[in-house]
Write a structure and sequence with these properties.
Low-confidence stretches: 1-24
Strand content: 15-25%
Number of strands: 13
Helix content: 25-40%
Radius of gyration: 21 Å
CATH class of the largest domain: Alpha Beta
């Protein structure tokens, strides 16, 4: 059973609300997480601070997951608020938090500085804790079965706005707010609102902060970070050159151009063949297995012959285990014609892919009772 949680019950020191201009105007305030090592030195000089002060703040933020000035007692008391305010301005304010799965799934609706709404979801499993983050307010890809895509794109998020979602999730885990006792955030997936590859600079900046050791970043393993895309081929190729072995997840949803043109409109620019080839090139370059995301939609893309076709398409690029298919039971949006596949059709789809030697799993869906699909909570708000 889902329940809504008062922010004060979840975080004893909730982030302050930010009074801001109308949506889409201006840029988010500069934040420590936006800055490279050299830029941090420049920021220290600009603020008239010794460089070690900035390093102290970075240690609090990235290592201690702390954003409250009062907890940063190694900073001079008289200057503490000013220093933290300049380097860690509030970026996200909680609007609502919903819980499911006994409190181990926690979905947060955030308001950004300009009033835009985004969502993140923290999911605790027995062996890991994963946060699903947003990279854009809205999305411009216009996939008809996706609540976010139907809302359109408002703007790109900054590197720091992305990172702040991760820091908040890591803080929830470390402080014992999630049932199961204090723990560590281990995984990050760019599968929230937005197309990460369409906000490439901020996305890759956030990835660099995630994998950098403290106090320069969060010290996460690149192999535990997944970047999804609907198939922006040039950016997929660019990601392969970054030398950061994240997992690439391609949201394919159809193995044939006729249907994929309808489900994923970007396919009219980059065909199934071009998109899958770019995914294969990523796997070949990085030696990292690619995940093919496939939302199962009743009587739309779940026919047995499409499973056979998908297997043939993927096998045409080699058989060294470069790919894994992740079938996603569709979490339908209210009033939508798109709905989840029948279980028997889902099982047959798996059987057909496995018969062709394609490793296949069905995603463990969570949060269906808390508007779990990307964009649903923001749309309701």
């Amino acid at each position: 059973m889902a329940n809504e949680v008062d922010v004060a019950d979840v975080n004893p020191r909730p982030l302050p609300l930010v009074m801001a201009p109308p949506k889409g105007r201006g840029k988010p305030p500069r934040h420590l997480a936006d800055l490279s090592a050299e830029e941090r030195k420049a920021a220290a000089e600009e603020l008239g601070l010794p460089a070690f002060r900035v390093k102290q703040v970075a240690h609090h933020y990235f290592a201690r997951l702390e954003r409250d000035p009062e907890a940063m007692t190694d900073l001079p008391a008289k200057d503490r608020d000013a220093i933290v305010g300049a380097l860690l301005p509030p970026l996200l304010s909680k609007v609502r938090m919903l819980q499911a799965d006994g409190g181990t799934t926690r979905k947060t609706l955030w308001r950004l500085f300009d009033g835009s709404l985004v969502e993140s979801v923290l999911m605790r499993y027995p062996d890991r804790a994963t946060v699903c983050v947003s990279s854009q307010a809205g999305c411009g890809m216009a996939c008809p079965f996706c609540a976010t895509g139907q809302g359109g794109l408002q703007r790109n998020m900054s590197t720091a706005e992305i990172i702040d979602q991760v820091v908040d999730a890591a803080h929830q885990m470390a402080s014992g707010q999630v049932p199961g006792g204090p723990g560590r955030l281990s995984n990050v997936v760019f599968m929230g609102m937005g197309e990460p590859m369409a906000n490439y600079k901020a996305m890759i900046g956030a990835v660099r902060r995630m994998v950098a050791p403290a106090p320069d970043g969060l010290g996460l393993s690149a192999r535990n970070i997944t970047v999804s895309t609907v198939g922006l081929v040039p950016r997929m190729r660019q990601l392969a050159t970054e030398r950061i072995p994240v997992t690439l997840a391609l949201s394919l949803h159809a193995p044939d151009d006729e249907l994929r043109n309808e489900l994923v409109p970007i396919n009219t620019r980059f065909s199934v063949a071009e998109t899958v080839e770019a995914a294969w090139e990523y796997a070949r370059t990085t030696k990292r297995r690619v995940s093919i995301e496939y939302a199962m939609m009743r009587d739309i893309n779940d026919q047995a012959w499409r499973a056979d076709l998908l297997g043939d398409v993927l096998n045409s690029y080699g058989d060294w285990g470069w790919v894994h298919v992740n079938l996603i039971p569709l979490n339908p949006t209210p009033g939508s014609k798109w709905t989840a596949s029948r279980r028997e059709d889902e099982r047959e789809f798996v059987r057909r892919l496995e018969a062709k030697g394609i490793p296949t799993t069905v995603r463990d869906t969570r949060g269906s009772d808390i508007d779990g699909a990307c964009g649903q909570l923001a749309a309701v708000e």
